[in-house]
Design brief:
The protein contains no helices and eleven strands. Strands 2, 4, 5, 6, 9, 10 and 11 form a seven-stranded mixed beta sheet that branches. Strands 1-3-8-7 form a four-stranded antiparallel beta sheet, with no helix packed on it.
Length: 119
């Protein structure tokens, strides 16, 4: 079993900041890329940011310059620092990890954490 648990969501005013964390646990042999996606109400899930084991990152155009993804390989943890938040950043944020576990490789997902940007 592999579990991903997200932390750090909440309500923040426009222009504010939040930091999300996601910890992977279980019978993990290796973790490759990790990332964050989000889903707004009534919309499809979209990729927000990814980070490789070596620290290479990619971002959606809508968050470039405002969000920063990072990871701590020793702790199996990925972070998302979100600054200058906008109402359109509202949604459920999900972390994911490409893992090797239980004799196979697959993408594990967390349950999601709500981020609401509103005054």
């Amino acid at each position: 079993q592999v579990q991903l648990a997200e932390f750090g969501g909440g309500l923040v005013q426009p222009g504010g900041s939040l930091r999300l964390s996601c910890v992977a646990s279980g019978s993990i042999v290796s973790i490759y890329a990790m990332g964050w996606s989000r889903q707004a109400l009534g919309k499809e899930r979209e990729l927000v940011a990814t980070v490789t084991t070596g620290g290479s990152t990619n971002y959606a155009d809508s968050v470039k310059g405002r969000f920063t993804i990072s990871r701590d390989n020793a702790k199996n943890t990925v972070y998302l620092q979100m600054n200058s938040l906008k109402p359109e950043d509202t949604g459920v944020y999900y972390c994911n990890a490409d893992v090797v576990a239980q004799g196979s490789d697959f993408t594990a997902w967390g349950q999601g954490t709500q981020v609401t940007v509103s005054s």
